């Protein structure tokens, strides 16, 4: 296996998710990942159309209001998922209960043998719970 070293051009600051309700979606991901919603940060201006979630691991998710947001329709290629998050969990069944209770929608439970399940957040973005 070959590994290539590359010069770093940039550092990932955050992943931005389009949605219609930035507060609702930031609170959803806070319930899943922990952290602080709208922690003061000089990199971003907070407001009605923008929210952030600073997780305990240092990762930042941002949420941007888009009035005519059209959520992906997994697995329909006419409205593809665009991106998704893989979130590691110890217990898939327990994690599934928790994300559903917080507003997620189960898209694909799999066959019971694989180590992940696919959900949509309240704004329709797909994400996977993956057994650690």
From TrEMBL:
Cite the VOC domain residue spans from the record.
Answer: 11-132
Spell out the InterPro entries in the cross-references. Glyas_Bleomycin-R_OHBP_Dase, Glyoxalase_6, VOC_core
Entries under Pfam families matching the protein: Glyoxalase_6
Read off the PANTHER family from this record.
Answer: CONSERVED PROTEIN (PTHR35908:SF1), HYPOTHETICAL FUSION PROTEIN (PTHR35908)
The protein here is known as VOC family protein
What organism is listed for this UniProt entry?
A: Streptomyces levis
């Amino acid at each position: 296996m070959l590994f290539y070293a590359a010069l770093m051009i940039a550092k990932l600051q955050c992943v931005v998710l389009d949605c219609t309700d930035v507060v609702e979606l930031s609170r959803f991901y806070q319930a899943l990942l922990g952290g602080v919603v709208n922690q003061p940060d000089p990199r971003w201006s907070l407001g009605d159309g923008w929210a952030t979630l600073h997780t305990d691991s240092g990762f930042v998710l941002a949420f941007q209001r888009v009035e005519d947001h059209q959520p992906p329709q997994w697995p329909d290629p006419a409205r593809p998922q665009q991106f998704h998050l893989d979130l590691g969990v110890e217990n898939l069944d327990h994690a599934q209960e928790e994300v559903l209770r917080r507003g997620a929608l189960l898209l694909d439970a799999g066959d019971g043998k694989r180590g992940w399940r696919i959900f949509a957040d309240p704004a329709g973005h797909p994400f996977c719970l993956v057994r650690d």
